[in-house]
């Protein structure tokens, strides 16, 4: 199983970034997909989640990103994306892609991609 993130980088406050995670080695549609993040000196936290196909692809967000971030998935391409708009310095973190089986709870992690919001 592989989860490969891309799209991180340096952006100014107010800017946008789009993260992608390409998944291989599992039945993608059976997994809920999430983006977690871990800022400097902070614990890892859930930013956004989108449920599996059987659960209706429902999206949920942390209060801190609601209205600014959008999570989506393409089951044909085994890809989950996170569109991040109106970025703030406090969004600076390593962003991790997570896959969790909707029934068995088995989960997998990507290696992370750095997002830095700074002027």
Question: How would you sum up this structure, described in words?
Answer:
This protein has 119 residues and is mostly beta strands. The protein is 0% helix and 52% strand. It has strands at residues 2-6, 9-11, 17-24, 31-38, 45-50, 59-61, 69-74, 79-84, 93-101, 107-109, 113-117. Strands 2, 4, 5, 6, 9, 10 and 11 form a seven-stranded mixed β-sheet that branches. A hairpin with a 6-residue loop joins β4 (31-38) and β5. It is globular, with a radius of gyration of 14 Å. The mean pLDDT is 97.
SSE inventory with pairings:
Blueprint: E1 2-6, E2 9-11, E3 17-24, E4 31-38, E5 45-50, E6 59-61, E7 69-74, E8 79-84, E9 93-101, E10 107-109, E11 113-117
Parallel strand pairs: 2-11
Antiparallel strand pairs: 1-3, 3-8, 4-5, 4-9, 5-6, 7-8, 9-10, 9-11
Low-confidence runs (pLDDT<50, min 5 residues)?
A: none
**Mean pLDDT rating:** 97
Sheet/helix structural class: mainly beta
Specify the biggest β-sheet.
7 strands, mixed
Query: Roughly what fraction of the amino acids lie in strands?
Result: over 45%
Shape summary: globular
């Amino acid at each position: 199983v592989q989860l490969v993130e891309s799209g991180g980088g340096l952006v100014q406050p107010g800017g946008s970034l789009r993260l992608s995670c390409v998944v291989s080695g599992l039945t993608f549609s059976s997994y809920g997909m999430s983006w977690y993040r871990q800022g400097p000196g902070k614990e890892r936290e859930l930013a956004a989640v989108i449920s599996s196909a059987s659960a209706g692809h429902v999206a949920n967000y942390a209060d801190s990103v609601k209205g600014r971030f959008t999570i989506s998935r393409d089951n044909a391409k085994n890809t989950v994306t996170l569109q991040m708009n109106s970025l703030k310095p406090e969004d600076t973190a390593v962003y991790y892609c997570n896959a969790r089986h909707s029934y068995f709870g088995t989960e997998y992690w990507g290696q992370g991609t750095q997002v830095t919001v700074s002027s």
